[in-house]
Fold this protein.
Amino acid sequence: MNPKNYKNAGRHPKLDPTVFRCSVNFNASEQVQLQAMHEKSGVESMSAFIKLQIFGKPFKVFYVDENSRVFIDRLSDLNAQYRTIGVAYDQTVKALRENFTEKKAASAVRTLVEATRELVAVSHKIVELAARFDREWLQKYR
């Protein structure tokens, strides 16, 4: 066995290992309060959470409202439907150009343009509703 390869085996040493340990004792109510704060923070380990608290690093708590989640899901569904409509629109225009005379294709494209204008108007209303929802509901949780 080559001694050079033997020395390189295993885990690389950490640059700044944590070797010092501190101990803190809590009563029952303090422990419950600490656990509640830890759960709200979303930090995986209790030791990392305590370090963040001791050294004054802020943590954010995000409240998830079921109604806002449903609203956002529905908006995402609408965006997916818009993409589907866009693809179908392109395919329709291509098929019109290939299979119909210029006059018939132009009249069909005019109909598509009107439908597109209506769709744009609906999307503007959706954006306005989303902004209003953000102002009125999401501000309550900040």
User: Anything to note?
Assistant: The chain has five helices and no strands. The mean pLDDT is 80.
